Amino acid sequence: MISLNQVSKTYETPAGKFAALKSINLNIAAGQFVGVVGKSGSGKSTLLNMIAGIDRPSSGSVSVAGTEIHGLSENKLALWRGRNVGFVFQFFQLLPALTAAENVMLPMDFARSLPFRERRKRAVALLERVAVSAQADKLPATLSGGEQQRVAIARALANEPALVLADEPTGNLDSVTATAILDLFRDMANQGTTVVIATHEADIARVIDRRIEISDGGIVNQ
């Protein structure tokens, strides 16, 4: 599903060049639930951004489901991402003026993956899957942090992506809600979705198939 070959990423900063990733070689099989762990600044988010095509490598190649995404134009990459990848952000990134259901419908609108009349029905079904269908017509500001994260997960699943990436998905949640969110990702992997999460959580061994530790831009243990 995922193959990174000698991937490096260097950013230009006022203080000079900063190497966020250094010669990463990584293969992840379809249907695996992978936890990428490491301290803040270790390169976890950059690694996820490479896999999602949100950012491009300075050198090396990134292939997802047989597509070398670093070679796609920006327009083709955006369309590819919309149809193949679901991304869950740490701070939810829900549009405040749209209801929960409308937020979930956005990726369907972008990718035109369903006829317009069917999008609302699918959005509500996804909200039901993550146990927040009762909040379908509420604005994000009226929802708890856990409910907003569930809506964000439902949005990530809108176009039935084969790959779901989550950047610190439990970082702003209480322990009970965090456990429920991790169990939800586990269920998704059990149903065949490839799931990769970047996390500080120490207690993820019970749910993941594989643990990858990253430090100073390099993989130190997996």
List the topology elements.
Elements (H helix, E strand, L loop, with lengths): L1 E12 L2 E13 L4 E5 L6 H9 L6 E6 L2 E2 L5 H11 E4 L11 H12 L4 H14 L15 H12 L6 E5 L7 H16 L3 E6 L10 E6 L2 E4 L1
Parallel strand pairs: 3-8, 3-9, 6-7, 7-8
Antiparallel strand pairs: 1-2, 1-4, 4-5, 9-10
Helix pairs in contact: 3-4, 3-5, 4-5
List keywords for this structure.
6-stranded mixed sheet, 222 residues, 6 helices, alpha/beta, single chain, 4-stranded antiparallel sheet
Short description:
The chain is 33% helix and 28% strand.
Outline the structure in words.
- With 222 residues, this protein is an alpha/beta fold.
- It starts with a strand and ends with a strand.
- Helix 3 crosses helix 4, helix 3 runs parallel beside helix 5 and helix 4 crosses helix 5.
- The longest helix has 16 residues.
- It is globular, with a radius of gyration of 17 Å.
- The strands form 2 sheets. The chain has a 6-stranded mixed sheet, with helices on both faces. A 4-stranded antiparallel sheet has the order 2-1-4-5, covered by helices on one side.
